[in-house]
Amino acid sequence: MRRIKHYLEYFGVWLLLQLMLLLGLHISRKIGHLLGAFAFSVVRVRRNVTIENLSLAFPDKTAKEIYQLGRKTYAHFSCMLFECLLLTKMSGQSLTHFFKSITNSHLLNQARLQGHGAIVMPGHLGNWEYLGAWLSVSGYPLTSLIRKQRNPHINALICGYRERMGMTLIPRGMALRGYMRALKKGKFVAILADQDAGGNGIFIPFMGRPASTATGPARFSIKAKAPIIFGICYRDKQDELHLAFEELKVDTEGLDNDAAVKKITMAHTQKLEQWVRKYPHQWLWMHKRWKTKPPDASKNQSTL
After folding, report:
1. How confident is the model at residue 303 (pLDDT cuts 50, 70, 90)?
2. Where are the beta strands (DSSP E) in the chain?
3. Whole-prediction pTM value?
4. Which domain holds residue 53?
């Protein structure tokens, strides 16, 4: 029964892809926006989580403004999913001409010349799949974590286009070893470290609230002497995609390892927050970012 369900799911995705290829990117994006708005207003999957997160992050906004922002968030992510589906049939050469602008790509070249590789951290903001694909086809060998999908056919579809774009994929349980091996070879790794880190994270202020944040990227950076580059593929009002890169320059001289890790982690979180505030509807508000709470108020204050 499960096998039949998987085939039906994949067949539905395949039919949607054929329709999108027929209609083209512009119309597919329009349909994506409409379906996203429909999902927010009617289907309402994780809508309460989204509204709650937006209300916590933007306490000065009215209920109407929060509702509109939530609706735009769903529209953006539906459009993004349509774009990613088209990516399964896109060539690497056509992808390189896909973006309206690319800012500070020289930072990638500098990191490559230094020979230590680089840690690219986009966060779940904009269209991170297109960012990773562009890096891979543009001569920046990228290693990325792959989370296995329940449907093996859809999993093969996702892995297939990532590998076709030139990414090296590592399973979740091999992330530590795989990332360090790649950095030692002077390659680039992509890490999305903006979700709740549970009891393994440290509490860093994000959008005005303490959030359990992963320290892995900072530790990788220190150990491999690799720079951290914040990367983003954001959408403008005309649905055009843009790439931008910023290096996190953090002075950790004289700090012990834990203090250095915290300072680097905080710098990335602050940079991410700047972009989230600029494009609030393009971040993953459906995720319970503040799920893990500080043990108590006094400890909370000490970690900030």
Report:
1. very low
2. 101-103, 118-121, 142-146, 168-171, 188-190, 202-206, 209-213, 228-235, 241-247
3. 0.92
4. 2-303
